[in-house]
């Protein structure tokens, strides 16, 4: 895969291709699916093929916890589906990318639908709201892959339901990347690593003229 470009630094490879609690790179099913669906001669082609495969297997639904790649991939008649929201989609993508030797991590924050927007979340009612959350909350998580000479490249498949390798917009507000402590689901939390119990969260974004 690295024949066409230089390899990433060793410290990047060691850190971002390893197994974690949510990204089980030893899951043989995910490894086999990754090689079958996405292995290519260049890392950019691999990232794009993997994005296309993941996107075509998404069964989107709001998930209040974090399933991790093992539980997000569900066996169904005729194949597999990825069940969950942006967190589960990102976790499966990152796991499969790492299994292929492509350094990957997640970025998290919010995704705006307009440049002037108010978002709010009542933590006491999220369970009852379900997908109605999407009307007033835009917490988001998406994968990033490391490809020389570009560095970290965003891959947000759920923004417009497209592969979107290397596509990044001003509507993506990044709070952080790959923290060890993550406060719940991107849809139902502040998307800020935290040890606090939050009951209500609100953000207001105001567009500016460039």
UniProtKB/TrEMBL annotation:
Organism in which the protein naturally occurs: Thermofilum pendens
Transglutaminase-like domain span: 78-159
Protein name, per record: Transglutaminase domain-containing protein
PANTHER family according to UniProt: TRANSGLUTAMINASE DOMAIN PROTEIN, TRANSGLUTAMINASE-LIKE DOMAIN-CONTAINING PROTEIN
Phylogenetic classification of the source organism: Archaea, Thermoproteota, Thermoprotei, Thermofilales, Thermofilaceae
Domain of life: Archaea
Family matches, as Pfam families: Transglut_core (PF01841)
């Amino acid at each position: 895969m690295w024949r066409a470009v230089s390899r990433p630094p060793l410290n990047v490879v060691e850190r971002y291709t390893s197994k974690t609690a949510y990204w089980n790179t030893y899951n043989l099913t995910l490894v086999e699916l990754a090689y079958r669906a996405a292995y290519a001669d260049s890392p950019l082609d691999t990232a794009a093929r993997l994005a296309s495969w993941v996107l075509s297997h998404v069964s989107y639904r709001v998930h209040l916890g974090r399933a991790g790649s093992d539980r997000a991939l569900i066996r169904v008649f005729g194949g597999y589906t990825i069940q969950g929201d942006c967190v589960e989609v990102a976790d499966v993508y990152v796991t499969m990318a790492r299994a292929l030797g492509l350094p990957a991590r997640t970025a998290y924050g919010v995704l705006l639908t307009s440049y002037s927007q108010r978002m709010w979340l009542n933590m006491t009612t999220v369970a009852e709201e379900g997908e109605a959350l999407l009307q007033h909350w835009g917490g988001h998580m998406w994968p990033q892959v490391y490809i020389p000479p570009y560095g970290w490249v965003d891959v947000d498949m759920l923004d417009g339901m497209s592969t979107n390798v290397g596509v990044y917009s001003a509507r993506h507000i990044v709070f952080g990347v790959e923290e060890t402590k993550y406060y719940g689901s991107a849809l139902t939390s502040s998307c800020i690593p935290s040890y606090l119990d939050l009951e209500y969260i609100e953000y207001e974004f105001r567009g500016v003229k460039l």
